[in-house]
Amino acid sequence: MTTARIALDVMGGDHAPRAVLEGALMALDSFEPVTPERLLLVGPEELIREQWSALGGSPEVGFLDAPETIGMGEKPAVALRAKPNASIPVAMGAVKAGAAGAVVSMGNTGAMVGAATMILRTLPGVRRPGIAVTIGFTPSPITVVDMGANTAPRATDLVEYAVMASAFQAAVLGMPEPRVGLLNIGEEDEKGTALTKEARALLAEAPISFIGNVEPSELFQGKTDVLVTDGFTGNVVLKLVEGFSEFLIPRVMGAAAEHGTPVAPEAIGGLVQSMSYSAYGGALLLGVNGVVIIGHGRSDATAVSNAVRVAAQTLDGGVNERVVAALAAGGA
Amino acid sequence: MTTARIALDVMGGDHAPRAVLEGALMALDSFEPVTPERLLLVGPEELIREQWSALGGSPEVGFLDAPETIGMGEKPAVALRAKPNASIPVAMGAVKAGAAGAVVSMGNTGAMVGAATMILRTLPGVRRPGIAVTIGFTPSPITVVDMGANTAPRATDLVEYAVMASAFQAAVLGMPEPRVGLLNIGEEDEKGTALTKEARALLAEAPISFIGNVEPSELFQGKTDVLVTDGFTGNVVLKLVEGFSEFLIPRVMGAAAEHGTPVAPEAIGGLVQSMSYSAYGGALLLGVNGVVIIGHGRSDATAVSNAVRVAAQTLDGGVNERVVAALAAGGA
Fold first, then answer.
1. Which of B175, B142, B174, B180 has the alpha carbon at shortest distance from B161?
2. A127 pLDDT exceeds 60?
3. Strands B179-183 and B226-228
4. Which of A323, A332, B98, B169 is disulfide-compatible with A159, CB 3.0–4.6 A?
5. Contacts of B268 in chain A (CB under 8 A)
6. Cβ contact A250:A257 at 8 Å
7. H or E stretch covering B210
């Protein structure tokens, strides 16, 4: 078990730095593998030392100075060129230099993917990284990949995503042989696009438990553990589920209230919480030479703490080592 | 106002012929523009005459003999070659010959698209037809196109879909200047795929009210009246919404019941009904030389009657005439 450090971008996200620092405190309180010695807080050092101390944070955490910050709306490529000392590239640099094993940020997704790809490079056998998100409110957890890193993938990229997400499910979620499905618009082989047809044939030959096409409606039926798709469709699925639950739950509550049988908000609090992005623990950028977790920009402290937990679990589960071994054994 | 006939495929769908015939009766009872003289029942003539009469159906409807039937699971191209006398191609032939203006079927979607394209041909100015579905449970109705006819569209196809769906919204839903959005994974111009980037530029020049990119979560916020996308993504959206509501509503009900504040099923009956495919009134195949409505295979009599209603409205609203005029005026 590695105890590599986790570089946490204190300046990332809509509620930074406060929500990030509070999330770090929560992670230290709640998750045993997250120790102060493992946490490396990245940002304007003086500012974060002061705020961390004001919150009563442990003095045993590390600090890494990054005087610049990349905003949520900045164009990733431009921002990364203009701000080499921003918290995102500095955190990636810490992993590159061996001072940390993971980066966690609630910041600019494009900047995270760009910095990780340029600074950490991809793992041996991986052409393009993919973003994986584990949805936990379904009958069993589903890891969907790619959620938007790669909107024009090759079929071989989808095979790499399948192998990587399988390694993650095995190492972190304790599923030794996760079932892998290909998101498609029908069950039959010939359904879908040129990409899905080619990917389907390649996935059937890959060293994974491939179950074939999975239709979107089947996501909620516990049929598969890993779902692979292109980054455009994956991002549509993620955002549609988020937006639709925010629309539908109030409608059901409203209909119940109108009928004279109102539902107390606390009755559905657990359900709403389980569906919220804050329970996801952030997205995992699979395929780069380091553990990279990208949280939702809207993350609160709970979401930050879950992202830090997933970083520790991914490091300690040796996910990348498993990925490299699986791909070397003929995974893609 | 045209009073062209509506050819109804009595053999299409999981509950044919009974649900189709009952749906025809409902349409006659409920919708003024649907008269017995306008209905043309297509299928094995002796069988459907007998059943129609047993249900007390008006003797003034027409019958068109089609001794063969294409099953839901059959491969469209193969089935259309092998069964020229099946109800789907016979109904299309009636439109081609001028004996009807519309075809309505709950049958094999691929066979409907294939037969419509081959027999009716596309409208002047249209390269490939697209499937439009109007979602009615959102704050205002949204017509999404393409829902699966064309999984590898060109950017110009999306412009044609936008023009056609705008004509439909104007003629049938009474929205003179429907707002058109492009489904994308971000607001910014540079987001998405090569297709969305090219389509965005072309849509901005088209004679429609283009509002730019619309994110999946914004579907439920009344931001747009028409949403264009490729057929793969559109089909994913449709099936995801269907599957997610079937998953989520029982979860909310269950949580309320566990909390001791159960919700009576009748409280949410209206909501569930509004979200069901049977309220959609079927999908409209836009871009072929005739009105073609494809219902859900699971359609009950209500869904069938709504599909017949939409066929009458689309005919009477002169949607195809508007499409041809708009495209000739520089629509794509």
1. B180
2. yes
3. parallel
4. A332
5. 252, 255-256
6. no
7. strand B209-214
Q: Tell which of B263, B266, B271, B273 to mutate to test the A interface (max A CBs under 10 Å).
A: B263
Question: What's the length of chain A?
Answer: 332
Are the beta carbons of B244 and A192 separated by less than 8 Å? no
pLDDT digit string, tens, across residues A26-35:
999 999 999 9
Residue pair A234/A205 in contact (Cβ under 8 Å)? The answer is no
The yes-or-no answer to whether B6-122+287-316 and B130-274 have a common fold is: yes
CATH architecture of A6-122+288-301: 3-Layer(aba) Sandwich (3.40)
Res A253: pLDDT = 87
Domain B6-122+287-316 CATH assignment equals 3.40.718.10: yes
Phi, psi of B186 (to 5 degrees): -175, 165
Q: How many residues are present in chain B?
A: 332
Q: Give chain B's residues under pLDDT 50.
A: 1-2, 332
| Count of CB pairs separated by less than 8 Å, A with B | 160
Are B151 and A220 in contact (CB < 8 Å)? no
0.90 cut: is pTM over it? yes
Contact A220 B185 (CB under 8 A): no
pLDDT for position A277: 65
Q: Which pLDDT tens digit goes with each residue over B58-98?
A: 999 999 999 999 999 899 999 999 999 999 999 999 999 99
Position B277: which residue type? Y
User: With 0-12 CB in 10 A as exposed, 13-18 as middle and 19+ as buried, what is A116?
Assistant: buried
**Encoded tokens for B222:** 């009344």
pLDDT digits (tens, 9 = 90+) for B186-201: 888 888 999 999 999 9
Fold of A130-274: Isopropylmalate Dehydrogenase (3.40.718)
Residue of B238, B251, B272, B277 for testing the chain A interface, max A β-carbons within 10 Å: B251
* Count of CA atoms in the C-beta half-sphere (13 A) of B199: 30
CA-angle at B108, arms to B107 and B110, nearest 5°:
145
Q: What percent of chain A has pLDDT over 70?
A: 97
Domain positions in chain A are: 6-122+288-301, 130-274
A239 → closest Cβ in B215, B255, B263: B215
Query: Which amino acid makes up residue A275?
Result: M
Contact A255 B243 (CB under 8 A): no
Name the β-bridge partners of B284.
Answer: B132, B293
